[in-house]
Amino acid sequence: MRILLTGAEITEERLHQLREIAPQAEFAHFSSNKAMEDEISEADIVAGRVSEQALAKASKLKWIHTWSAGPDAQLFPAFLQHPAVLTCSKGSGAVPLAERVILLMLTLTHDLRRSLAAQNAKRWEPFFHTELTGLTIGIIGAGNSGLDLAQKAKSFHMRVLGIRRSDVPTPHFDKMYAREELHAFLAECDFVVVTAPRTPETTGMLGAPEFAAMKPTAYYFCISRGGIADDDALLSALKQGTIAGAGLDAHGVEPLPPESPFWELPNVIITAHNGATTSQNRERRFQYFLKNLENYLAGRPFFNVVDKNAGY
Fold it and tell me: What is the DSSP-derived secondary structure letter of residue 220?
């Protein structure tokens, strides 16, 4: 059994752990995807991403694990037809992503940038700002990140609304809306947060009519994947004051190009899709792969299996 590994999740210590549970396997760790793909024809398992060109040579490939929570980059048409199982790291970044939303909400409502500017100018400038207490947060996607965010929002005494595909009872949410109730949901929210994966169903689900349905005092946040909101519609809503502002960790185009107008908007905070870039999250991702490798060797079912057609 030949197992090819890429990514910073693999260290010498972690590689040793893998060899301990699978002494019969041959492991190879590569510093780049290209180097890994040069040897993919003999691979049974890959932890990393496999390009369409490399997939054509991967005749023995049975399982791919992606370190990403969102598997969409792996779901090109040829892979949808390939028999290899795909597992992902969804859930690993739930805690830091929820923290990022809380950080962005507090930064915007407390106008922290104004305080930092005053500090840099050595200027004493007290001012009134907004509390989170009593405000309504609406979470699109009640998966791992959405659930953790809902729990944190409750700690700030907020009202929590959600939208999800299923009607499964969900803790920490005051009310759950169906997709067809999207506009009614948006009208209730002081903060709209996207934690859902980007799938054919969610891509472009927020356009000009949806931003118009929001309060002019409301803020939009995206921490999962760009493209769920139409960038042109979002840009227009921010420029025209249709909504109050935005905190964007995930973007429609990444890296966000220097010429993007989002950089210069005074009511927007941009972060470089690093809300879950923590050492703790890297360890959780590795543990997911380790556990699934144990399951594979023991003939047990995988967890975090991606439905290739659904996209998550």
Answer: E
